[in-house]
Amino acid sequence: MRHVIALDVGGTGMKAALVGADGTLLHQARRATGRDRGPEAVVGSILGFAADLRAHGEQHFGEPAAAAGVAVPGIVDDERGVAVYAANLGWRDVPLRELLGERLHGVPVALGHDVRTGGLAEGRIGAGQGADRFLFVPLGTGIAGAIGIGGSVEAGAHGFAGEIGHIVVRPGGVPCPCGQHGCLERYASASAVSEAWAAACGDPEADAADCAKAVESGDARAVRVWQDAVDALADGLVTALTLLDPRTLIVGGGLAEAGETLFSPLRTAVERRVTFQKLPSIVPAALGDTAGCLGAGLLAWDLLGTDGRRPAAGRPTGAPPAPRNSSEVTT
After folding, report:
1. For residues 67 and 303, what is the distance between their CA atoms, to the nearest angstrom?
2. Residue pLDDT, tens place only, 49-102
3. Helices and strands, number each (H, E), in the chain
4. E strands, 62-159, in order
5. In the predicted model, what is the mean pLDDT of the chain?
6. Above 70 in pLDDT, residue 147?
7. Structural domains present in the chain
8. CA–CA separation, 3 vs 58, rounded Å?
9. 3-state secondary structure 255-321
């Protein structure tokens, strides 16, 4: 059975799947990255995991994977297939596509940024399905974005497209590791809300989920913390939609798990800020933490094209439909 390898590499763990041509998830697995052993160990873990996935496909489905797609964090040069920089993995200029191609006996390999890859999945088979222009914004430890155009995601000239978390929304504000002050992610990410709520309630273990629950119970301190984050997020999003004019704005990540506790005030805050701009649909992400892995599978199938050949540059190919689980196997 023809299939591809899909691999999503996170800071501490990796999610993987073998994906059939019709979108069926033939096999799923998870494994630690081995980050505690250093950057070379992480690369070794990825290569070993990919080789094991290839062997599993050959043994159980009669043939090895036809291609592989890999999503990684940090700065990624999609065209060269190089993981340029990832602070949480200690990477600098790792030629991951070349290394994986060698380990997988020469099959084509696609390398993508984790958020852009997740955005690709959300746009094609998730919350943005059918939208010709979308913006995917996950609110996690930081804030990034994926700009969707006609079934593809824009990487930018240097791989930096979509870094909405580093729009300055509070000039002269909190320092950001990027070197600026007042960046959006310092006010509206899940980690920023956790930090603000821990300080406000006096519990150093409190996090954003606790803040959301306190908001729902009417705690005035939590409402202030939450509204500050929503206002900052709305400021950043309005800047983004002014530049990009998306039809659909997809919000995901840990903070979005608060549901309407986030989306109701956010929609109101964005609507109050727009003037001439067209207001997009603001919707929650649909694929959760599987988006990166599913997007990696789409990248792999794109390499092959609908007829098994590599597609013309820039042309999105017929992606598989929304995936179906056939089995869940943990290695």
Report:
1. 7
2. 999 999 999 999 999 999 999 999 988 888 889 988 887 888 889 999 999 999
3. 9, 14
4. 68-72, 75-77, 82-86, 91-94, 109-113, 133-138, 146-149, 152-154
5. 90
6. yes
7. 3-113+289-325 (3.30.420.40), 127-284 (3.30.420.40)
8. 10
9. HHHHCHHHHHHHHHHHHHHCCCCCCCEEEECCCHHHHHHHHHHHHHHHHHCCCCCCCCCCCCCCCCC
